[in-house]
Amino acid sequence: MLNFASFKSKCEGGFASLLQLYIKAMINKELIEKLLQDKLQNTDCFLVDVTISSDNNIVVEIDSDTAVNIDLCVEISRYIESHLDRDVEDFELEVGSAGLTSPLKVLRQYKKNIGNEVEVLTKDGRKIKGILSAADETSFSVDETKMLKKEGDKRKRPYTETLCFDYNQVKYTKYIINIK
Prior knowledge:
Radius of gyration: 23 Å
Order of helices and strands: HHHEEHEHEEEEE
CATH topology of the largest domain: GMP Synthetase, Chain A, domain 3
């Protein structure tokens, strides 16, 4: 970590030294991701997203295979804060869980939700609701059930079709909350 004395001595070295100091002191996404990777290792929690605004508002979104509670969010927040120096660069930090209505962003969320009902909005504007049936590094599948009357049927009956999507074909995939 840098303190005021080292900051002052670096500034006396001219513009190049000041630029190097700025780059070293800058809070970046990779640093936060590395801290979280270390902290979440050997847990059922995982990183979903990190965003850092131009005014150093850091937003960390985590998820878990089981549940994320407030105590875990506080623990992670304190862990990150202990590895950053507010004297060098001021920041605001928010740590929270991926909400139930938030879009799925990482493969582990897709795998966690296999068997659950999801809504997919494709980039070409189609909205599909179905059961998430598979997910891998490049694509995922949704089983869509429609009521159709095919030739030979006396009335409409459910038919299921498996639709495959590359992640880059969709705007979002969201978990659907069913209250029955």
